[in-house]
Every structure is written in C-alpha cells, then in structure tokens.
Amino acid sequence: MPASKKIAISTRRYRKWHRNVALIAGSLLMLVSITGILLAWKKNSFGLLQAKTATGSSNIPASWQSIAAIQHAAVHHLQLQQPQADTIIDRIDVRPDNGIAKVIFKNHYTAIQVDLGTAKILLMETRRADLIEQIHDGSILDRFLPGNLGKLSISSISGFGLLMLTISGFYLWFNPQKIRKHKRGHRKKHPHDLPPTTASDEMTA
User: Fold this and answer.
1) Residues of the chain with pLDDT under 70
2) Which of 71, 72, 125, 156 has its CA 20 to 30 A from that of 91?
C-alpha cells in the first residue's frame, strides 16, 4: 500500500476521533470557557457577581470584637432576614485592611460582612461568583456524588478532551502536508507515471 494511502487512512481515523471527542467534550469546554470569563470579570461586575468589600470602623486588631461575637451577629441577622435558611457557617474571612469579616455559609450562597470593630452588619450578599466557580470546576456535582468525584470527573473529562482535540487536530493538519510531500516525491522519482501531455494541454500552456 502506498505511503500516501496509509496516511490518508490514518487521517480519517483521527478525523473520526476528533469529531467524537468534540461532541462529548465540546459542551464541557464551552461551559468552562464561559464560566471562566465570568469569574475573570467578577470584581468588575458592578456587584452583580461579587459584592464590593465594605469598610469597617477599625483596622486595629486590638479593638476588634471576638470571632464568637462576629459569628453570633451574622447568624442572628440571617435568622431575621431568612428564617428558613441554614445557619451552618463554612468559613469566616477576615479582611484586616478593611476592618471587616465575611461570614460565609456552607449550604447556600449567602455571605454577611460584619464590622470587626463593632460587630455591626455592613452588608448581606448573595455570592453568585461562588456558584459560577463551582460550575466551572465541577464541584457543584459533589453535592450529589461521594467525595470529590464530581470535580474530578468534570476536570478530567475536560482536560483529556482538550488534549485529544489538540493531538487529533494537529494530525488533521500535518497528515495532508505529508501526503502532498509524498506525491511530489513520487512524481519526481517516476515522471513516466504522469499522464501524457496532449495537444490541448500544450496550447493551454
């Protein structure tokens, strides 16, 4: 079998892989791309994706309220505003320069910014960027799957899919170059295999 024929068969195989992988991984890659763009703009979304950080009354640690007082103030405010909401806290992010603490809840996307100096509630926000981030890395599926299986699955499928598209796409570009090179080499070595020149060809030339 001629070398160019083998390359053509190989190219058709890569084209099939490329098409199948694109159908499976393309939607995931698009989702990752869109959410990645949104995350890049979260601090410039005019508070739509992520609220601006408020400024507290003091950035001097010696004058701050205790973490227990900050936690109590946030939970109490949440119970007043959303009586049915879960009050389990995921973490408390302290922002020393701003003099505030962000109390972030575990089972929903609510966060409350509390003044470190007075334990006064400064802002209650919905952290839409957190939801987008969980969609971006697949961790949103961890709510329904054991361990980190959701995040691992989405990340692995997206990563391997992009790798396969890159490899197969390269060969879809490279193999036609090889075929043309083989054909040019064959014409030089076997000029007698070229079709005879006719009178009309000479006139055209």
Assistant:
1) 1-5, 7-8, 14, 182-205
2) 156
